[in-house]
Amino acid sequence: MEVTARAPGKIILSGEHAVVHGSTAVAASINLYISVTLRLPSPSGHWLEFSWPIGRIKEALSELDGIDCSTPTTCSGKFAESISALVEEQNIPEAKIALASGVSAFLWLYTCIQGFKPATVIVTSELPLGSGLGSSAAICVALSATFLAFSKSVSLDKGHQGWLDFGENELELLNKWAFEGEKIIHGKPSGIDNLKGYCIDCILYSAGNMIKFKSGSLTRIKSAVPLRMLITNTKVGRNTKALVAGVSERTLRHPDAMISVFNAVDSISKELSTIIQAPAPDEISVTEKEEKIGESMEMNQGLLQCMGVSHASIETVLRTTLKFKLTSKLTGAGGGGCVLTLLPTLLSGTVVDKVIAELETCGFQCLTAGIGGKGVQVSFSGSS
Ligand SMILES: Nc1ncnc2c1ncn2[C@@H]1O[C@H](COP(=O)(O)OP(=O)(O)OP(=O)(O)O)[C@@H](O)[C@H]1O
Ligand SMILES: C[C@@](O)(CCO)CC(=O)[O-]
Ligand SMILES: [Mg+2]
């Protein structure tokens, strides 16, 4: 028997960086997923493969024997050292070394939740890694969901055909495990990523849709109309910690100006969440709504430039999409990473194709995504 879980990626529609300084931010799940399949047990054969004899894992993590998967546990001290040793033994090629922390999170979540059972785990991703679309939290949510689906702590109908949602209590347990995985990948998630011991990305990926948050308080919101974005991955790597520190330094140099910038972002995020939730019963009101959303994105981008987190590659995307009268803003930490471009409902497919073609000639990767998609789901197949 096997189970597959999928968890979506996310975008920040408004408020990155300013959220660290107390402003409101709006984030949404997208309909691009990381999927994890668990086979008990089965042969493998994939392009990048890591495997350990069960005996080796038992030897390295023997103290985890019998651990209760209903109690999420932090990977610290000697466990972190043992996990690092197991990952080092795989001699991950230099070009793929960024995966090491994801592999560590996998080992931790698997051993804690599934114990020392032999299995094959297959990961596939529609999300670019390390580009601001939350692949780290998505992988942790999808791994936790797959492993919990076969555990005694979660009761799911294994005979169900197609995708299944988790119940409220089960989501809570899943979130806590995913957060333990995120801590392995990120060290200490901060700001937008972290809320009272939970990972905001994980919450978003678990339940899907959109959230508005400010200083530790989170409200779920639901878009009244479907929204579609072009996501351009500039492929320019960024360092979130350094970018966040840069904004704080600028705030120390220009406190009055920067407080005004953060207040402006707060107003934009609040307005955006009101616009998104307002009903739009006909084509005219949908177009008006999209124009307002586009304007709020444009204003937010201007303020992100004031904070000093734009980048030449981001500016190239902005200029290119503007030629087609489309508005864009960076999403996430900036300094490269991904840029969002609003695709209005009435925009023709030919225009979308032309924009994508022009962006791809600059060396960027383009993805289109629906906004506010489903949260984590699982699907069982095969006979037990
Ligand atoms: N499919 C995957 N397989 C293994 N590891 C993964 C996978 N997806 C993500 N990761 C891990 O997550 C890391 C990327 O996380 P990071 O937080 O830097 O970026 P992100 O989550 O994509 O974007 P952000 O957190 O800025 O929204 C990768 O380096 C890897 O360790
Ligand atoms: C830049 C930032 O606002 C979002 C990064 O995804 C940082 C944070 O909130 O932790
Ligand atoms: Mg991440």
TrEMBL record:
Tell me the enzyme class.
transferase
Q: Which UniProt keywords apply?
A: ATP-binding, Cytoplasm, Kinase, Lipid biosynthesis, Lipid metabolism, Magnesium, Metal-binding, Nucleotide-binding, Steroid biosynthesis, Steroid metabolism, Sterol biosynthesis, Sterol metabolism, Transferase
| Domain GHMP kinase N-terminal span(s) in chain numbering | 115-194
> What is this enzyme's EC?
2.7.1.36
Record-level GO BP terms: sterol biosynthetic process
Which cellular components does GO assign to this protein? cytoplasm
Question: What is the predominant subcellular site recorded for this chain?
Answer: cytoplasm
**Presence of keyword Kinase:** yes
Is Metal-binding set as a keyword in this record?
yes
Catalysed reaction equations from the record: (R)-mevalonate + ATP = (R)-5-phosphomevalonate + ADP + H(+)
Q: Where in the cell is it found?
A: Cytoplasm
Fetch the InterPro entries from UniProt: GHMP_kinase_C_dom (IPR013750), GHMP_kinase_C_sf (IPR036554), GHMP_kinase_N_dom (IPR006204), GHMP_knse_ATP-bd_CS (IPR006203), Mev_gal_kin (IPR006205), Ribosomal_Su5_D2-typ_SF (IPR020568), Ribsml_uS5_D2-typ_fold_subgr (IPR014721)
Pathway it works in: Isoprenoid biosynthesis; isopentenyl diphosphate biosynthesis via mevalonate pathway; isopentenyl diphosphate from (R)-mevalonate: step 1/3
Q: Which GO terms describe its molecular function?
A: ATP binding; metal ion binding; mevalonate kinase activity
> The GHMP kinase C-terminal domain covers which part of the protein?
291-344
Q: Which family does it belong to?
A: Belongs to the GHMP kinase family. Mevalonate kinase subfamily.
Protein's UniProt name: Mevalonate kinase
The organism encoding this protein is Eucalyptus globulus
